[in-house]
Amino acid sequence: MSVSSQSDMEKMSKDFHENGFACMENFLSPEEVELLRAESHRLIREEALKEGIRNVFNYDCNLESNYFTESTKKTGFFYEKKAFDENGKLIVPEEQSVHKIGHAIHKTNPVFAAFTRSQKINNLYKAIGYREPKNVQSMVIFKNPRVGGEYMPHQDASFLCTSEPITLAGIWLALDDATKENGCLEFIPSSHKWPLARRNIRVVKDNGQVELIWTSSPKEYADNQFVLTPVRKGALVLIDGLVVHRSGPNLSENSRWVYAVHAYDKARCRFLNDNWLQVDDQDDKVTEPPK
Ligand code: FE2
């Protein structure tokens, strides 16, 4: 396991608080990268196909499918729209068709659970002043060659909001080199000092059906406000829940896999119960036995 020095951690924390994001190369050892990649491959090969249906991820976040809302407590699989032709036939290899696995693999999958609860991850939270970090969401995002779509500008706290002070941190770990061509992250530096522009909230209708709605329309940002953040395989990008960021489509032949975890600081705020993702005390426990 590669070890980050005290000064690396202090610099990372300083950048995080000043800019709303921070990068640290070589945060993961090559062995850790391989471990998380191998388990992701295994999940696609052995688990995704068992489901018999392919849920296409909706980048517009209309999120009308129950499969999406129910994935908050399991290992769910979401596919890329561009991986299918107009008749719904898969046009890329199965392994390159998955958009992401989510949203609770930090507790449902033994490999990701062990890694997410490691001292290494805890030290990160401690470095940025989180006294009681609670992991609420986890995803492997694949952004595969040619089919990986873009993420429009957003603040993560729109989806995972807390009471004031809003605390939310995203740990984004590169399992591939992330470049301009394959859709690396882009940030508006210091935009975490701006208010939360809008929220995506859960509404339960009279018939019991859950609907996710936006509280207002998207805010516009100029392209020249964004700074590209290319990083190498094994790097960490730490993301404040309020910083405005986006990422482009993957137009290259190279994949851009990442493992991303989100946590809030339970010592300072409350996770809002109208978030799409519902948390409970069971969330800290592994719910599937190790295989
Ligand atoms: Fe994000």
For the secondary structure, the number of strands is 14
Could you tell me the mean pLDDT? Answer: 90
Shape by Cα distribution: globular
- Annotation field: number of helices: 6
Secondary-structure element pattern, one letter each: HEHEHEEHHHEEEEEEEEEE
Major β-sheet, in short? 8 strands, mixed
Beta percentage is 15-25%
Spans of at least 5 consecutive residues with low confidence: 283-291
Structure ligands:
fe (ii) ion
Major sheet: arrangement of strands: 1-12-7-14-5-4-3-2
The helix-and-strand class reads: alpha+beta
Helix content: 10-25%
Radius of gyration: 18 Å
N-end to C-end Cα span = 23 Å
Q: Can you put this structure into words, describing what you see?
A:
The chain has an 8-stranded mixed sheet with strand order 1-12-7-14-5-4-3-2. It has a 4-stranded antiparallel sheet with strand order 6-13-8-11, with no helix packed on it. Mean pLDDT is about 90; it is low at about 285-290. Helices cover about 20% and strands about 25% of the residues. The two termini are about 25 Å apart. It is globular. The chain has about 290 residues and is of the alpha+beta class. It has helices spanning about 5-20, 30-50, 65-70, 105-110, 110-115, 120-125; strands at about 20-25, 55, 75-80, 100-105, 135-140, 150-155, 170-175, 185, 200-205, 210-215, 225-230, 235-240, 245, 260-265. It has 6 helices and 14 strands. Fe (ii) ion binds near residues 154, 156 and 245.
